[in-house]
Write a structure and sequence with these properties.
Blueprint (H helix, E strand, L loop, with lengths): L1 E4 L2 E4 L43 E4 L11 H5 L2 H7 L4 E4 L10 H14 L11 E6 L1 H11 L16 E7 L17 H6 L4 H8 L11 E7 L18 H4 L9 E4 L9 H4 L19 H11 L9 E2 L9 E8 L9 E8 L4 E3 L1 E2 L5 E7 L1 E9 L2 E9 L4 E6 L4 E7 L8 E2 L4 E7 L21 E4 L2 E2 L1 E5 L3 E5 L7 E9 L2 E9 L5 E2 L12 E3 L4 E2 L11 E7 L4 E4 L2 E4 L4 E4 L2 E2 L2 E6 L7 E6 L7 E10 L2 E2 L3 E5 L1
Parallel strand pairs: 3-4, 3-5, 5-6, 6-7, 7-8, 10-17, 19-26
Antiparallel strand pairs: 1-2, 8-9, 10-14, 11-12, 11-15, 13-14, 15-16, 18-20, 20-24, 21-22, 21-25, 23-24, 25-26, 27-30, 28-29, 28-30, 30-36, 31-32, 33-34, 33-37, 35-36, 37-38, 37-39
Amino acid sequence: MASRKGNTYKLKWGMTLPSARVRCTIVPLLLSASALFAQVITPGQPVPRTTSPPVVFVNGYQNDCGNSSFANTFGIADQVLHANGNVGLYFNNCTVSGKSSIERLGAAFGAFLTALKYEDGSAVNLVDVVAHSMGGLIVRSYLSGKQEQDGAFLPPTGTRIRKIVFLATPQFGSGVAALGLGTNTQLDELSSGSHFLFGLATWNDNADDLRGVDAATLIGNGGTGRATTPGFDDGVVALTAASLDFYQAGRTRIVPMCHVDGGGLISLAGFCDSNAKGIAKIRSATDDNARFIVSFLNGTSDWQTIGEAAEQNKFLSVYGGLYVRPFTAAGSPQKLNSAVARTQSGTAKTLNMSNDEIAYTDMFPAGQVSLTANAASGILARTVSLPAGGVQALLVKPGPNVSRVQPAAAAVFPFSFAPRMLISIYGEALAQATDQARSLPLPTMLSDAQVMLNGSPLGLLYASTVQINALLPDNTAPGLVKLTVQNSSGTSNVNLMLEAAHPAIFTINQSGTGAAAAINARNGLPATRDNPLRANDYVELFLTGLGATTHRQGLDFANQVPGVTLGGADCPVTYAGAAPGFVGLDQINCKVPAGLGANASAVVGVSSGALTSNVATIAVE
């Protein structure tokens, strides 16, 4: 059925295995009288309003939809959440017939959220989500607006989701699912190295930030090791493939559980012991999975003590995973014959493939990695830094190759941009500049590079082989846009999310952290330890990303007025908009609040709408 060589999982193609779904009986439970009323709200029925958002549960892959139920997947989770003051809802993916694609399930989930109404008839605009296995991919597909066409996305304007708890979601697939390759679309998309998973991992700025929704995951290492390596999987999904490291560090906890309860097909296949506990099924409020969900949704820190941190795990602390996909110089996908990853010391691994375009591995030593892809256009090479703890999806191609775009001032989260923002584009072979590198702001550099947004050229402020600085236009509507870097050797494309505003503060050391680029208006000098701010002083803070402006009184005022905090207190804004005389540079003037006390590193932050800036510091006395 499957063989393992070292740490590499090899599939013997042509063999199929039913989904690792447990047909288990409902365990009789003794419940308190109050818990008996904790029923999941029937679809279409009004939602009672409570002090917390309703919780939507989303189930995973169902081998037998005739036997699918809330209790079979989540046990008494509804009762546990009811006791916590939450209303429970259930999106059963089996209500979408025919083993539809995960993209269609994502669209159906979006329609489910849109239809939710409170008892007074008002819309339910915000929910929390608990998703098991494929259910988590349904949610991610909804957030990205992924379409069935490869590379196409129509993300919803608003997410409607406050928090997500992932339970054993195969964020980067499952080798076990690949045993059913060709059986149905869902198993194909769940298979490691699928086009669906690569697209989901790279849809926004060559990454997936979950649209900034607060998220954490509980994953298991209670498998027998037959699927990969003992201690490295939950019987179905490898630790690297289930980790949330692609989103944020510190959001993954590991418990000795299996993907589903043992005793069924998963045990017959030898992936989990017969007495194994499934990670989504809750039997008691004191179960680790129950405590994890309740703590994270409540905003307490208890979830961070459950199980083992990914950063401390013997595998996730030293290994990462890889997805490798070749593209042509013009930016189109191309066929892949094979791919090899090699460490600096020379250790090499031929990557697995479940199709003819994408190679992958779940386990490879973190550090500098040399990739060699034997593609239709020839041999392609790329050297990357592979972090430990998760999977990195990478494009290899000749010509320019954009790896990441971020505001020129600082990296911000989520990965979104704004009109009039100064941006920095990082990558390989981006341009051959004919003028020496200088600091911002600069006139357009002389190079062979062009940068376009939805086909319209952008003004360039700096260009080199590894970095281009550019200015986003002031008339682009929020939504997903395509940024293209083109030069004499080819083209590279990347999607960017534009919002009305997303502030990013410039810092003195240009790192995005530390002392902010700010002027003490009392004397017109930089605000530093030697020239600290005082109560009632005015500070001029420099940033980018305040968005579109309106010209009045000789100045360009930001249409969306930001807020500023300094030392944890409100710093009343007297001006916010374009910095006079500078292209793309923004300025905020605010009045320093009293009562801050002496602090050489008072924290300053800017918010606009729901988005916040990087954190910088300003000296006060």
